[in-house]
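Issue 218. Parser rejects a valid record. Input:
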Amino acid sequence: KTLRADLEKLSADMKSEDKEVVSAAEKKYDEIDQKVTDAVKTYILNNTTKQSAAKLLYDFRYSLDEAAQNEIIAKADSAFKAVPNIDKLMAHLDVLKTVAVGKKFVDFEMADPNGKTHKLSEFVGNGKNIVLIDFWASWCGPCLREMPALVSTYDKYKDKGLGIIGVSLDKDSTSWKEAVKHLDMKWVQVSDLQGWDNAAAKMFGVQSIPFTVIIDSEGKLIDAGLRGGELEMRIAGLLKENVEEIPKIGTGHR
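Output the parser choked on:
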């Protein structure tokens, strides 16, 4: 509560017309957010037999990274693990171990907007140096804002070994198809129209979008979670191309 005392004022400052005020407020906001996360992590690690700590772990699951969560679960007792939703969190951590960097990709099959089915394995190593899986949805604001940058990256590197397969977490077929057309996404798009229950998203442990996974020509996962300029820089590096650094864009939609 003490750490968060200034957040209301900072939120107001972030709406200022003065860019310097906005920048300073965003920096301070992030610092406070990190302090809160650090305090929560310390409390949980010191109380791995308490149900209150287990609830905090679930509540802060998006703030605590995978390593921290595994560290906590390794110390937790049976009462901690019995708290509602901790079983889901543990199952998610198990999924992440199967799709970790360095692991062989897990194949999936899904239909495109015309009903034709595609497998991820159709693209991996099939004349492409790297394949990017892009998890997104037509209802996801950050996804739509970032898509023009991804379209530009695709146009720039598609003839240099980059392939993309888009996986939509949509439920409405019309919204999905209209978004694909409107955003001029020329790569293959697939979806099972199950929203957050999308089979591929579950397979890769996706909890927020946009989310990307990079796979090399041998089928190994080599990176995940990159966006905007950071994503283009990584792609350029893998394809041995030069590119000016571009700032990252926004935050994901959970």
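Fixed in the parser; the record now loads. Residues 242-254 have pLDDT under 50 and may be disordered.
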